[in-house]
Design goal:
This protein is mostly helical. It contains two helices and no strands. The protein has one domain. The protein is elongated.
């Protein structure tokens, strides 16, 4: 149960980081960092993609 709570907390942190930045590049970078914290290299790719896609 403790691992589930930790994973949920880290997911929330990654989501928050993916929303940071004013440009697509900065959102992709922060999304990649958040994803890397959660799931390593695969998470970095997903986080960067979501960060770039969330740009205006």
């Amino acid at each position: 149960m403790r691992i589930v709570k930790l994973t949920a907390a880290l997911g929330l942190i990654a989501t928050t980081l993916a929303a940071c930045g004013d440009t697509a590049t900065s959102r992709a970078a922060t999304g990649g960092l958040g994803g890397a914290m959660i799931a390593g290299p695969a998470g970095a790719v997903v986080g960067g993609t979501v960060g770039a896609a969330s740009a205006d």
